[in-house]
């Protein structure tokens, strides 16, 4: 999978050199010589990493890094012409992940890029796995591991069955789930059309959530079909 990398340096020769080495590694490069163009790219392209020169006219690399951190979490590597501790401290304080001093060996920069992308990818995968048991829907938060539920930051006291119903509807958010499907999933038994168990539990859930059957905010009834959370 190709990665999108932003390169910003007002020294054209350096920016062009970095671009060549990155492209040799099959990265997609967005290269700019001014901060203004770079800031526009940040807001229009999906980026995986940024390489920013610190010393640039008008808007420096620190300011660009700060703008990135207002919205995004992808790695940022700073390039500095001065081997000063204050540059490193400033960059890291503003959210940079690494820095390299000019003049540098291009292969060292590529190694840093690969290391940051590996770290970021691994972190994101772990974060996703850790949060697979949590579902959030418009102020409703369900934690499958603890079987706890919150609505607008207030705990809801649900029975195990009520939690299972709400969880299944949330997992299938946007899809209408029939009473038969819901009964089989939660109770694990064959559903009979005369059985109103699901309807009763849905009513109890709505009462606890202060929801209305006529003007529901969460659990909606699709008459003759089933229930859905949108």
Task: Describe the protein's architecture and organization.
With 230 residues, the protein is of the alpha/beta class. The protein has eight helices and twelve strands. It has helices spanning 12-24, 35-44, 61-69, 85-93, 106-130, 160-171, 179-187, 197-208, and strands at residues 4-8, 28-32, 49-53, 76-80, 98-101, 134-137, 140-143, 148-151, 154-156, 177-178, 219-222, 226-229. The strands form three sheets. The protein has a five-stranded parallel sheet with strand order 2-1-3-4-5, sandwiched between helices. A four-stranded antiparallel sheet has the order 6-7-8-9, with helices on one face. Strand 7 (140-143) and strand 8 (148-151) form a beta hairpin. Helix 2 runs parallel beside helix 3 and helix 6 packs across helix 7. The mean pLDDT is 85.
């Amino acid at each position: 999978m190709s990665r999108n990398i932003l390169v910003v340096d007002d020294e054209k020769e350096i920016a062009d050199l970095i671009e060549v080495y990155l492209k040799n590694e099959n990265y997609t490069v967005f290269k700019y010589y001014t901060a203004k163009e770079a800031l526009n790219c940040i807001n229009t392209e999906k980026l995986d990493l940024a390489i920013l020169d610190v010393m640039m006219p008008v808007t420096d690399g620190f300011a660009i890094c700060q703008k990135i951190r207002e919205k995004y979490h992808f790695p940022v590597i700073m390039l500095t012409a001065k081997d000063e501790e204050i540059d490193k401290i400033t960059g890291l304080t503003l959210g940079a992940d690494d820095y390299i001093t000019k003049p540098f060996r291009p292969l060292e920069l590529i190694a840093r890029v690969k290391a940051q992308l590996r770290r970021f990818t691994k972190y994101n995968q772990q974060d996703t796995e850790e949060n697979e048991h949590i579902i959030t829907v418009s102020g409703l938060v369900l934690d499958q591991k603890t079987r706890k539920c919150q609505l607008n930051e207030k705990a809801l006291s649900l029975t195990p069955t009520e939690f299972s119903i709400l969880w299944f509807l949330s997992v299938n958010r946007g899809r209408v789930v029939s009473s038969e499907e819901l009964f089989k999933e939660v109770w694990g038994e064959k559903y009979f059309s005369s059985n109103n168990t699901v309807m009763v539990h849905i009513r109890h859930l709505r009462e606890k959530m202060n929801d209305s059957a006529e003007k529901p905010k969460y659990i909606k009834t699709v008459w003759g079909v089933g229930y859905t959370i949108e």
